[in-house]
Model the fold of this input.
Amino acid sequence: MKANLKKQKIDILHGSIPKGLVQFAVPVAATAILAQLFNAADIAVVGNFTGDKSTVAVAAVGANSPIIGLTVNLFIGIALGVTVVIANALGHGDKNAVQKAVHTAILVAIIGGILLSVIGEITAYPILKLVNVPEDVFPFALLYLRIYFIGIPVILLYNFEAAIFRSVGETKIPLIALASSGILNVILNLFFVAVLHMTVEGVATATVVSNAVSSLILYFNLRRTKREIHFEPRLLRIDKTSLKQILRIGLPAGIQSSLFSISNIVIQSAINSLGTIVMAASSAAFNIEVISYNVLSSFGQACTTFVGQNFGAGDFKRCKKTLKISLLEGSIALGIAIVLILFFGKPLIAIFDSNPDVIKIGYVRLMIIMISHTFSLLYEVMSGYLRGFGISLVPAALTTLGVCGIRILWIQFVFPHSRTFETIIIGYPVSLIVTAFMLLIALICYRPSYRFRKKEQININNT
Done:
């Protein structure tokens, strides 16, 4: 039952759970925050080095965020399935299953990335038309999106490679890879925009190049590692059993994330209808508020991996402890992030756009979203707990219904009666409260640790 995990830096099966969760979550959060900061660097650079085009350029990059999320999040969700499948196989000590899952995951990332890139190039123009991007912003948004779609294959490859490393508790290598490519991204941003006087095409190109570098760093690390997750190109093929397991867990999560993006596109369309200033303000605030989301999300991912391995090893007590400690540590980390972001919120928004109206409107979004992230923590950790047991459809369905459904209905029926930015943003906490409540009820009713332990005891008695 026990895997040979001596080389793991984090002892997921036997070590201290509080210490292990922090060791896992901090690099994951740092990786996500760095990724967002480097994305924010795109906006900051175009906001400060494109002269009279700055507000339009900021709005153009920001308008693409939900569209990019729609195209990428499906496969990022599937990458989560990779983490769970490999973690369970490690808990069982099945090295052969680990190897099959690793090589299947890499090939899925490559094929999926190419398909998404082609589809994205074809649909970029009609999608931007659909979301009511203003005429002055449209050409910049389209140019940025087309270049970004070229880099989709390497972006997906990085996420799948990072998922493979995280399945064995290794979170520092993805962090180092992202930090290295992120620094390159900032340098290229400044070179293309400040030196060569490009606009959004400069930061988009820098993003593609830097993502290619991060995926290559992880590729060579997978080739060199002596662990169970060692990658060998000659073994690159899709194993049907591994693919089925990955999709069973990851596809619901991916569909959930994609539907999230659809609801965000609906919201972005409403924001776009309020003008360029509001678009720029919302974009700037989003790039700040998402830092706190990355903090809470990292504890959800940590919970998934710890529960996944311990479930595979049959240690249900550690699974339950993981849930409780993830919620506690996540609450502390989130509280610190909220205080810091709200205290420095206005100066941070000014980094992207110093327009007083942009700062004022952006801070309104920050205040509302920050408080609502308390409920985001609840549903992320509870969803992560369920997915660790291989239960992915339930949290995906409830989250889709609670978050996406309510936000879309909010824009359709509430916003038309009060067409203000505040009305749009209030839809976020409303949807998150409902979602967290539904997941709590599901967790109480489902009781996965009790159910699977009882099932295992019955199987033992029958044999």
